[in-house]
Amino acid sequence: MKILLSALILSLALAGRATAADAALPAAAPHDWTGAYVGGVIGYGWGTTQARDNLGAPSSDIDYDGFLGGLAIGYNKQFGDLVVGAEADIAYAGLSGSGNGGIWGCGPPDIDTCAFDVRALGTVRARLGYAFDNVLPYLTGGLAVGRVEGELVGVCVTGNWCGSDTKAGWTAGAGLELALDEKWSAKVEYLYVDLGTGHFAQGSGGEGFRADFRFHALRLGLNYRF
Q: What's the whole-model pTM score?
């Protein structure tokens, strides 16, 4: 019994000394998100559209999807736990898809095929986050600009029945960024992108057909802070 009691007293004493030693060590400073950074992004986008002629008759739904990747630059400023920032990025996009015209959306029913692509995407966005030390959940939104293409497959000749369009719209989403150390951080984010309506020439009279470009993007990123 005395041996057990002595062992218990010794254990408590050692634990107390260890706790005192830990308390004497300086606490690690929380991660500071302030600063400029550059990085890269890669991801996957997907959406659904319809081709429409001048009379507004729609085709059947046409799905398009694909990968995208590019470069980003940004700046954060931390106020307490609140982090405010701005980010711009430019990415190559390979979102594409095709489908049957259905009705007179871009050609006769059950004969012609419409194809649509998003070839480039750039955004300029504000970011607002709340820091939990090195973990930063955030909301983001701003301007989106994209290069879109459309064609009636097999009939595209010298700009007739096909074309490309540069569209400006908006984007909004949310993300989560993790600081790996003082310089490097990794993030995952979701964006909804609305580029509005792309217009494409149809026939020598230039009557045109059109399609809306609204899609989702899930992206991974790696940043280096200066």
A: 0.83
d(C-alpha 12, C-alpha 8), whole Å: 6
Identify which of 110, 21, 128 has the alpha carbon closest to the alpha carbon of residue 74. 128
- Amino acid at position 192, single letter: Y
Residue 122 contacts residue 87 (beta carbons within 8 Å): no
Q: Average pLDDT, stretch 90-106?
A: 80
- All residues at 6 or more sequence positions from 38 whose CB lies less than 8 Å from its CB, including other chains: 71, 72, 73, 223, 224, 226
